[in-house]
Amino acid sequence: MEKTENCSAATTDEPQIHYRGIKAMPYVIGNETFEKLGTTGTSNNLLVYLTTIFNMKSISATNLVNVFNGTCNLATLIGAFLSDTYFGRYTTLGFASISSFLGMVLLTLTAAVSKLHPPACNKSSENGTCDGPTPWQMTFLLSGFGLMVIGAGGIRPCNLAFGADQFNPETKSGKRGITSFFNWYYFTFTFAMMVSLTIIVYVQSDVSWAWGLAIPAFMMFLSCLMFFIGTKMYVKVKPQGSPITSVIQVIIAAVRKRKLKQPDKPWISLFNHIPKASINSKLAYSDQFRFLNKAAILTPEDKINSDGSAVNPWKLSSLQKVEEIKCLIRVVPIWASGIIYSVAMVQQQTYAVFQAIQSDRYLGHTGFNIPAASFGIFTMIGVTIWIPIYDRLIVPWLQKYTKKEGGITLLQKMSIGMVLAIITMVISAIVEDRRRALALSNPIGIDSKKRSISSLSTMWLIPQLTLIGLSEAFTLIGLIEFYYKQFPENMRSIAGSFTFIGLALSSYLSSFLISVVHKISERSQTGDWLPEDLNKGKLDYFYYLVAGLEVMNLGYFIMCANWYKYKESGSTGNGVEGDDDMVKLQSDGV
I want to staple 407 with a disulfide (CB 3.0 to 4.6 A). Which of 47, 125, 129, 395 is the partner? Predict the structure, then answer.
């Protein structure tokens, strides 16, 4: 039975999938663009909104925003599980988009309706104190946040996989379309971030919070509209039951049969029933993690149904399921390396702002003082310029010489980004050393916290910010595409959640690293590396430390890449034939 809704009659026993590919992209990319404009436009300035409109203390507001962002990322795992197990990506995306839109509407109402937020500080009392939000106002606000968490939990893990579902993974044009889609997905994300950090933030801060939040809500409405307009164009892959259950079944079956001897020719003798309705690619046998093979050893006690499946999957699993679990296990070391890589990205984005605060931010001789937080836009500009060049010019050129899909392998692509991250950290350290030297010897002023402002122009921060953007374009896009292609097809929503869970863990790891460095360095002879006044610290030492960690991570990544075996597609259970007669697993060295 075909596991898609978007199909038409065919001459064979099984209906054929009608992949619309590029024809479906206006709806998919349009939905993606408006959704990103809505979500980033709402979330990027939340801290300012909570402290200025809701009169929350900075610590309380920071904790609430951190909990909100962390919950959004962790909710992706739940959303992915529900999508892959029960509802499918189309239904999950539709429900989550509506939930996100309603959450943004509630948030907009907290700004537009005076009774839904505290009075302004200069009107609340004679002594200048600010009234905080009432329990009712907080309940209304948190209700909006809750709906947005539900939306993020469904949208983030599913939108990439859903877009890639529109291309035929068994044809050259389909494979090229999937790779191009991942690049353009990240392009829309950076474009949305640029717009939200400039136009939308300006409207929120200098015009009206009501209008500033209404604009993202309207963008989210357009996202929903674009998504549902394209309904008839989409390939909608139906869920096939809990993939997590299959993982547990294989492990338990292997443990139960742990005392059995491994067969001499496991690829022949092991039980390997593949349901006709399976959407997963048929996988070749792999010698890695051979212990799991015991789950597929057929014993006299095992019973088989009339359709060839095991009566008790908790005692007997097919070799196909075993190989799918092996795919998951192989991905974990690469995922761990991606988390370490993201630490450099987080540190650069954080401390580049602090560097800008204590540098000369005047734009030439115009007298215009560039906001420190706005320098993050150079990271996005670098990505926005690079992706079209890479996707349309460099990849086709590389393909002529390497004959590989995408020009280079995904692991090679990620390694390039990791090298760029190391270079970025070194450049950041050199620039910081110069910035601090000029701040101590030739300051141009003192800020409100009595810290010297360096005469070094903030334009010197542009190279490191641009490089980290290029690094993200290689490694983060590579990781997203890697998860999608290496996970079993029925777990691709969970694959999408891996990116966000990794980012959440990297944020926690970054905070832990900063705390450790701060506590250790403040007792050293050099003094605290990361004080509030950077001129009294050694931020350049910290950058070198992160560079060292990234060098070790690169070495670890290369070892994992040389050990890694790609999942190769042959034919799938739904009758779509692949390019090769036999499925192969090949090792990839960087």
Answer: 395
Q: In three state form, how does the secondary structure of 239-255 look?
A: CCCCHHHHHHHHHHHHH
Distance of CA 552 to the CA centre of its chain: 23
At how many degrees (to 10) do helices 319-357 and 492-521 cross?
Answer: 40
Residue 330 in 3-state DSSP?
helix
Residue reference for tokens 């674009």: 226
Query: Domain residues of the chain, as ranges?
Result: 20-120+130-230, 243-321, 327-563
pTM of the model: 0.74
Q: How far apart are CA 436 and CA 539, in angstroms?
A: 9
CB 302 within 8 A of CB 295: no
Buried b (16+ CB within 10 A) or exposed e, 200-213: bbebbeeeebbebb
Q: CATH fold of 327-563, please?
A: Growth Hormone; Chain: A; (1.20.1250)
Residue-wise pLDDT tens digits, 234-287: 888 777 777 778 888 899 999 999 899 888 888 888 888 888 777 777 888 888
Q: Are 502 and 338 in contact (CB under 8 A)?
A: yes
List, as one string, the DSSP characters of 10-30: -SSSSPEE---GGGGHHHHHH
Q: What are the tens digits of pLDDT across the range 30-41?
A: 777 778 778 777
